[in-house]
Structure formats: C-alpha cells, structure tokens
Amino acid sequence: MDYIIMAKELLSLYPIVEPEIQFIRHNENMTFKVTDKLSNKNYLLRIHKPAIEGFFGLQHTLEGLKAEIEILKKLGCEELLHVQLPVENRFGEYITQYKFDNYDDPCYATVLEWIDGKILTSKEEITEEIAFKLGQNLALFHKCLEELAPSDNFVRPIYNIDNIDIAIEELKYCVEAELFSIERYNIIRDVLISVKNQMNELKLRNNAFGVIHADIQLGNIVISNDNPCIIDLGFCGFGYYLFDLGSAATIFPSNLRQNFLQGYASKAYFSLEDLRYIEGQIFMDIFMSYALFMRDNQRNSWIKTQAIKTCDTLCRDFLEGKEVFYSM
C-alpha cells in the first residue's frame, strides 16, 4: 500500500480538516509531516511499524506507546522544555489502532505536535551557544522526569547490565558475517566487561539512574528560535543519565564538548571525574548500535569501517586507562 494512502486513512480519524501530507522516512517507524491547511498547524504522524523486524521493540507495543505518551505529557506540563505534545484522535485517545489491508496485524499510530525549526544535520552547524543550551535542556529533561509518577503498566526499554551481556553474545554474529575479526570481537568483549564493572559502581550512587532519552543524535535535535529542542522519544527508557551525556557529547566537535558539559552542570549535578564513566557509556551505545544494525545487510556496512578505528585505537587506549572522551 502507498505510504500516503496509509497516512490519509489514519488522519481521517483525527480532527485535522485538510491534511497536506509529506512522507519523511520509514526506519524504526513510518513518519510523515502533516499540515492542516485550514489552521496552518503542523503535526508529526508516526505509524509504529519498523522497516525491518530487527527494529521491533517495546517502543512499538501498545504498553510502550502509552508510557511514551505519559513521558511527553509530563515534559509538557512542566513547561520547561519545548516538546512534541501528543494529539488526541476523534475518540479522545492518543494511540490509534488501525488494520491495513497489506499487514496481517493491526498497526498503532500516534500524532504529535510539530516543532518548527531546523534539524541539526552536521557538527559544523553547532555553536558554543547551542552546545551549552543543549546541555541545559538535557539536564532539564532528566530533572523533569525524576518526578514522573508512572502508571502501574508503565513499560519502556531498560538500559542496564543485561544489555551488556546480550550485546557480548549477539556481537559474535559480526565475526560470522565478517563485519570484524575475532581479534576485534575480543577487544569489544573486554571493553564491555569493563563497562559492566563501571555500571556496578554506578549502581551504588543515588540519583544516577532514571528516565533517559537514549537516542540523542544530530537528527533528533531541532533548532527552534536558537533553542536546541530534543525530539523523538522512540528509544526513551530507563538508564544512567551518563548514557545520555555520552551519546549527546559525541554529536559535538571535541572543542565544544566542554561547553555542553558546562551547560548540563549549570542545571544538574555533574563532575568531570565522571568522564571515565561517560566513555564507558559511549562504548555501550556504540556496540548496542552494532547489534541493532548488524543483520540489516542494506545498512550495516558502516560497522566494518567504524570497528577498525574503534577497536584499534579507542578501545585499546580505554583498556590501558587513557582518556578517550575527546577523541570519540
């Protein structure tokens, strides 16, 4: 079925009178920009059907989507951040279940408010001001959700030691698929074991673990009126706040990472002594990405190239106790 036809069918269930639909992409979800020509308001339509089965996760289930809606509403009611608030359908519900002719199972769809602005697509577009402000906004994101009182059936992904064990086992496939050698796999395994030890230390801390975004990357930052807004909570779940600091830091050139950390520290607790832990969380993020894409033969070639640099320089230095934060 044509993507636009699917979108039109779903939008008939929403109070959007004259929708103009623009297909964006089909990755972990099908996404569309929708403009109501009558009100001139913009929306984001998401059909929660991943492009490949390997992308399917809790975030695509009814329970997972209900939890994401809770998170968005909590962020919105705090009024500290510009977020994509959910939009109700004609039945007063935030999640729409719909059966398309070309799919055996029903799909879930959600509509969010659109944030007008420019999506960050290159590190060269980032200034000191944006880096500092994004640090502040990430801290506010974490602090707002500290007070979230989730419902009894609140279900989101959890990023903890179990993910490390799963990754160590699953990444053996990369050797079979010749994405990297057994020698590099052994280096990755040693790094992940070190990260497990770090996470055991972090477990002893208060206020180190909570709801995190878990997917801060260039394409998930929209600059709206000079304010870097964090979008796309598809992978949002429970994890260490330092995981978000790690993934966010890597979108900046090394000379701006200090600005980002200073911005975060201006709104929430942070110590430069935690850089070693942040490095570990960055490695965790990298290798979980390998596991996510490794079976997608259309999109896994980057793993070969990145694994060479990551294993032969960054991992070795990390295992030797050298600082790698500004090189990652």
From TrEMBL:
It comes from the Bacteria. InterPro entries: Aminoglycoside_PTrfase, Kinase-like_dom_sf, Pseudomonas-type_ThrB. Residues 22-266 form the Aminoglycoside phosphotransferase domain. Belongs to the pseudomonas-type ThrB family. This is Aminoglycoside phosphotransferase family protein. It comes from Clostridium rhizosphaerae.
